[in-house]
Amino acid sequence: WPVYRDQQRLPTGLGQAVHTKFLNLSPLDRASAAPLTLAFSEFDDSPEAWERYDRISFRDLCQRLGVSRRMYDEAFEPMILTGLFAPGEQCSAAAALGMAYFFVLKQQNAFDVRWCRGNVGEKIFQPWVEQLRERGNVDFVPGCRAV
Questions:
Q1: Helices in the chain by DSSP H: which ranges?
Q2: Residue span of the structural domain in which 27 resides
Q3: What is the pTM of this model?
């Protein structure tokens, strides 16, 4: 990882397919995901699209569109669990499509993971706290809820 950052830029969707890291899946399994492009093209973030795709779970949508069980189990289910914190049968297709667009399809390298090189508190939060303290207009009250 990163998956896409150093790869040739291609149109969204195509880039993710061409530069896939899901090489343990057969080409047939990967191709079974192609009908999801129809759902992505119909899901335009309108209230009507949300209403239509909220009626069906993401798992049911994948089954209806012929996504292979292996493709679903090894690629889509982990993404849904990570992005929506629930299995695909408990998430509406609308929520899954919206999440997938934002985190995977919005641009080719949107799915690339970037890890902090060191302790997150020391590298990110402590410098931020120091910067806010230097401004002098922030009160820090440790151990209390923010209001």
A1: 14-18, 27-31, 36-42, 47-54, 58-65, 69-71, 77-84, 93-100, 120, 126-135
A2: 14-135
A3: 0.66
